[in-house]
Amino acid sequence: MNPHNILILPGWQNSGPDHWQSLWEVAHGYLRVEQHDWMQPLRGDWSARLEDVLLQCDEPAVLVAHSLGCHLVTAWAACSRNTHLVRAALLVAPGDPEREELRRVLHSWLPIATQKLPFKNILVASRNDPYCSLDRANQFATAWGSDFIDLGRQGHINAESGLGSWLYGHQILDQLQQEQMVGAPILG
């Protein structure tokens, strides 16, 4: 798979240089979907940008989402006619836009999309994420049809969690890609 067809979807405020998403981007050549406004994210704008990038990929993409990026995947999938452009998604530490402290900034993300995703996906959550409880993350996984991984106590699974390039996360991504290649037609 072309590394530019693995799309990095950061959350609100983007992912800094020490975030595992940024480290994967540099180490593996993955493509970050740049948003026009990282500080005041609007669901419609972010979804349109993801659609634009997916339409330029030369094969179905694998999405690697963190925090609000997880909600971007579900919001986009709920309204796009091009969900066939995504092979699979790794959803990590979905924030909860319904939390009182996030509602003011993330108001355009409500209501949260809760339909089953039409492609294979894995949701990874932490027991002590300050932006989403483990129970709430499990509810998202159930609604979205995700395989669920409890990562233990890793905070928001970001740079502050001290994961570095998060080797285990990349192994999950590799496994997700391998599962999607089994039985896939060989394109020639």
Question: Can you give me a brief rundown of this structure?
Answer:
With about 190 residues, the chain is of the alpha/beta class. The chain has helices at about 20-30, 45-55, 70-80, 100-105, 135-145, 165-180; strands at about 5-10, 30, 60-65, 85-90, 120-125, 145-150. Helix 2 packs across helix 3.
What does this structure look like?
The protein is of the alpha/beta class and 188 residues long. It has one domain: Rossmann fold (3-Layer(aba) Sandwich). It has six helices and six strands, in the order βαβαβαβαβαβα. A six-stranded parallel β-sheet has the order 2-1-3-4-5-6, with helices on both faces. Strand 3, helix 3 and strand 4 form a beta-alpha-beta unit. Helix 2 crosses helix 3. The radius of gyration is 15 Å and the shape is globular. The protein starts with 5 loop residues before the first strand and ends in a 7-residue tail after the last helix.
